[in-house]
Write a structure and sequence with these properties.
- With 222 residues, the protein is mostly helical.
- Helix content is 66%, strand content 0%.
- The chain has one domain.
- The chain is built from seven helices and no strands.
- Helix 3 packs across helix 4, helix 4 packs parallel to helix 7 and helix 6 runs antiparallel to helix 7.
- Belongs to the ERD2 family.
Length: 222
């Protein structure tokens, strides 16, 4: 929705690095269903590959839109030089390190557990570049992305509520096995995700209210 629900083809104010972070997170999560059955839904949808199909379709759509967005911005010279690939690389490295030390061992599948935890940390950090753009005022927001802002916050709250309940119900069981670090990590990732989403929604709303009829990105000013 972040890529599609925009009022202009250049989608001013949207972070390409945030979009790529979501792509990396989703691709990594899909990969956990390729080997083993630990992360495949246990209901009938797992038999017809519905979960994998929907995830893959979403990734393909986002990748297409990000590439299209990048091409349009380059041709129109919009928002160039504001973001750096080093942001995405740093997020990926940090997520990989944290995943290595905090992954679960509940599925007895090292790479699947590592990949899933990496995707969780990556998704938690994904809105970092977007928040950075708004905090620095480097670019104006696209008002039509309001649906994304609201739904992202809602999904983060639901994700946090789910893992909060799982932690409450199963913490003692995992604590006895010495695997309680996973729950500490997942709740930390949830907190970071909600905090970034809430900050994004706040800054988005604040800038939308005071935005003039037209405003150029910092890199577009003459």
């Amino acid at each position: 929705m972040l890529a599609l629900d925009t009022s202009s083809s250049a989608a001013e104010g949207l972070s390409e690095k945030t979009l790529w972070a979501f792509v990396v997170a989703h691709v990594t999560r899909i990969s956990t269903t390729v080997w083993g059955e630990g992360y495949i839904p246990e209901d009938n949808t797992g038999d017809v590959f519905l979960y994998q199909g929907l995830e893959l379709l979403g990734v393909l759509v986002v990748v297409f839109q990000v590439l299209r967005l990048s091409a349009v911005r380059s041709s129109q010279d919009v928002g160039q030089g504001i973001e750096r690939w080093s942001q995405l690389i740093a997020m990926s490295v940090l997520a990989a390190v944290l995943a290595y030390f905090t992954k679960s061992t509940g599925h007895d599948d090292y790479w699947a557990d590592l990949s899933w935890m990496f995707s969780t940390w990556m998704e938690a950090f994904a809105l970092g570049p977007q928040v950075y753009l708004l905090v620095t005022g480097a670019c104006a927001v696209d008002e039509s992305a309001a649906h994304f802002a609201g739904l992202t916050l809602a999904s983060s709250v639901v994700f946090t509520a789910f893992w909060g309940r799982v932690t409450r119900d199963r913490y003692r069981e995992f604590d006895q096995d010495g695997d309680h670090t996973f729950f500490h990590a997942i709740l930390t990732a949830c907190f970071i995700r909600v905090a970034l989403c809430a900050t994004y929604v706040y800054l988005f709303t604040k800038q939308t209210k005071k935005r003039p009829d037209y405003e150029l990105c910092a890199a577009d000013e003459l």
